[in-house]
Structure formats: structure tokens, C-alpha cells
Amino acid sequence: MTYALVLNSGSSSIKFQILDPSADASAEPLVSGLVEQIGEPQGTIAIKIRGEKVTSELPVPDHSAGLEMAFAILAEHGVGPHDVHVSAVGHRVVHGGKVFSHPEIITDQVVDMIQDLIPLAPLHNPANIDGIKVAREMLPDIPHVAVFDTGFFADMPPAAALYAINAEVAGANGVRRYGFHGTSHEFVSQQVPALLGKDSSEVNQITLHLGNGASCSAVKGGHAIDTSMGMTPLAGLVMGTRSGDIDPGIIFHLYRTAGLSIDEIDTMLNRQSGIRGLSGVNDFRALREMIDNGDTDAWSAYNIYIHQLRRYIGSYMIALGRVDAITFTAGVGENAKFVREDALAGLEMYGIKIDPERNDLPNDGARLISTDDSTIKVFVVPTNEELAIAQKATLLAKG
Ligand code: ADP
């Protein structure tokens, strides 16, 4: 049995899993853990080992200490990276810019190149680099692989990737659509051809990753031809706390007229907008409860969310010309049947018909939720970004 370690380092957290890359997408990982509140007076390390939970509350001064403490707990339980012969370490890296379209074995030069991309992802790449540096020091004998959130979109056609802003300014500052959640869109879209009984090269599809962050992609013959997130993950669909697409003029207005600073506007659009900014909550379970209790703000937030989602679905149907499948994934997409129903309601004339009984089935693996006579098939395919990263890292590490 060979295992992979997958690391996702944030500015104050490290998420990790040790898992079998050949396992089924629904299989429990051997280990999954979260180190939180790094750098704060009190930190938390919560690890699930073969389904059993181990939690410690203690100060975690930095990423290096966090990973060391987590590995010590794993070693006590006999599941440290060396105990279980981890053969590859996969790192989730948010921004690969124009340079990284595929996963890369991490060398000092690759670290420098990811560092050069910090201006494009000032909040994410530095934390990813911290995690890479610490893990390479602790596990120098195991190959480390960077898997980029933007990778799946690196080859999008220029018509979809470029913005109609001044070309000189855009070119000098790396302004273009990069897209995010690529590992998830790729993982999910790769499963659809088999569900349709077709070859990937023949399949045109729309994938809807609806989690706390949300994005939508048009995929033709296995290649992304458009996606809703942009130069940053703020663009596109309405999300849990992000606005999605807005008129960029709103930013000038808030700066000039309302006297908000650029940082305040940034925080407001990324953290205090979307479903939360409209209703007060960002979890769809809480939103649904509020709607059921007659809360009009929650109802309005939901309608804005669905309206924007349908806009994107419509525009990708036109971009693709012919659509074989529409697939829902991530927390909301996999669990909120009402979102799936409302996103595709009344589209029978376009060949889309959801089967209410199939849509009602619990979230248990990839499944068809459209009727047999729906010409566009609608699926729910659970995403598993850690497994996708583990598979990519293992493949590359093998050489
Ligand atoms: P992230 O973007 O943080 O990875 P996830 O893909 O895990 O997010 O999705 C988290 C979101 O999924 C929650 O905020 C919640 O809105 C939604 N969600 C999770 N479970 C359910 C459920 N049973 N019913 C409705 N919504 C759910």
C-alpha cells in the first residue's frame, strides 16, 4: 500500500490528509487533520486517525511548529509519514499564474517561481510557500509536488481568458482570467464521460462547484474553455461571503463617495458580501431555515444567488453550443437539492429535466438526477480535491 500526504497551508492554518491515492473517491482517508489559529495565543490541532478523533489545544507559534506537533501526534499513533511509507507529498498552491499549467515536482527553482507569483495572490501564495518550505525540511527524502488551483484553466482560449481593458496595462500587470477550483472542476468533469458512456473528447459539459466559494466552468472535450472566477476568486457566482461579479464602478463609488479605503472595500467584497452580506448567514442550511421561517432578506439573497447561477449556466450553454451534461459538486451542489432544482427549473425547452425523486436521493456517490428523456444529463458528482492532489502527486513522484 502506498500513501500520499496532501497539505493545504493557509495563513493561519494547515489542513492535511494521508490517503491512498488509488482509493475510491468516497473512502475515508487514513488521516485527516487541521491545525488552526497558528500564531495566536491558543491554537488547535484536530486530527482524525482511522475515524478516531484526537484534539489538542495548545499554542502553535508558526507553521513549522504546527506541522511538527501534528507529525508527533501521528507518530504516537503509528501513522506518521515515514511509518506508513508516504511516497509523495502534494501541496495545494492557489496561484500558478501563466507559468504552471501542470503539477510540478518542487525544486528550489519552483519555490522561487511560486514566490514570484505572490503579487497575483498576496493572501494565498505566501502561506502555500510557508507550508512547502516547512514540509520539505521535515520530509527531505520524499518528492514534493505542487498542484495549482489555476492549472486546469491555463490553456483557456484568449477570448475567455483576456479582459477588455487596456492591453498594455493588463500585460504589464498579469491581469487576465486565471480561474480557481481547477482541481475540483477537473476531477469532477473527468468522471462525467464514463457516466455518459462516451469518450472524454466527445463530451461538452458545465461543472458547477458550489461550496462556500463557488465557480462554474465550461469544459469541451476535457479542456476548460471558460470559467467564472477571474484574476482573483472574487469574480463570478454569488458565494457564501464573496459578491461574485459586480460593476467595477461600484468600487470607485465606494472609495470616492462613501469614503471607504481600498482595504475596507476588499474586505467587504470578499468577507461581508454574498449570501452572508445579504442575509446574515453564509451556510445554506441556516439560509434555508430562515427562508422557511419567512425571512425576506434570506429569500432575496437566495433569489440573487440562483439568478446569477442561471445567468452563467445560460451563457455557457451558448459558449459550448451543444451540452451533454451539467454537474453539481461541493457542499451546496452535493447537498442542497433545492438549489439544484431551482438552478435548472423551467428549462425543459432546452432539454433539461430534473427528476424530483432522483434529486431527492441522499449524497452518496456520483449519480444521475435528470429524467431518462432529458437530453442534457444532470449529475451530482462529489468532489474530492485531496484525492485529486494525491493522485497527481503520486503520478509525478513515480516519474
Ligand atoms: P468550501 O468552499 O469551504 O470547501 P464546501 O464545499 O465544504 O466549502 O461547502 C460548504 C458549504 O456547503 C456550507 O457553507 C453550506 O452552505 C453547504 N452545505 C454543506 N452541507 C449542506 C447540507 N446538508 N445542506 C445544504 N447545504 C450544505
TrEMBL record:
Its cofactor is Mg(2+); Mn(2+). Pathway: Metabolic intermediate biosynthesis; acetyl-CoA biosynthesis; acetyl-CoA from acetate: step 1/2. Mg(2+) binds at residues 8, 385. It is found in: Cytoplasm. Mg(2+). Can also accept Mn(2+). GO terms for biological process: acetate metabolic process; acetyl-CoA biosynthetic process. Its main location: cytoplasm. GO terms for cellular component: cytoplasm. GO terms for molecular function: acetate kinase activity; ATP binding; magnesium ion binding. PROSITE patterns: ACETATE_KINASE_1. Substrate binds at residue 92. The active site is at residue 149. Its EC number is 2.7.2.1. It catalyses: acetate + ATP = acetyl phosphate + ADP. Keywords: ATP-binding, Cytoplasm, Kinase, Magnesium, Metal-binding, Nucleotide-binding, Transferase. It comes from the Bacteria. It holds the Pfam family Acetate_kinase. InterPro entries: Ac/propionate_kinase (IPR004372), Aliphatic_acid_kin_short-chain (IPR000890), Aliphatic_acid_kinase_CS (IPR023865), ATPase_NBD (IPR043129). Catalyzes the formation of acetyl phosphate from acetate and ATP. Can also catalyze the reverse reaction. Homodimer. NCBIfam families: ackA. HAMAP family: Acetate_kinase. This is Acetate kinase. The gene is ackA.
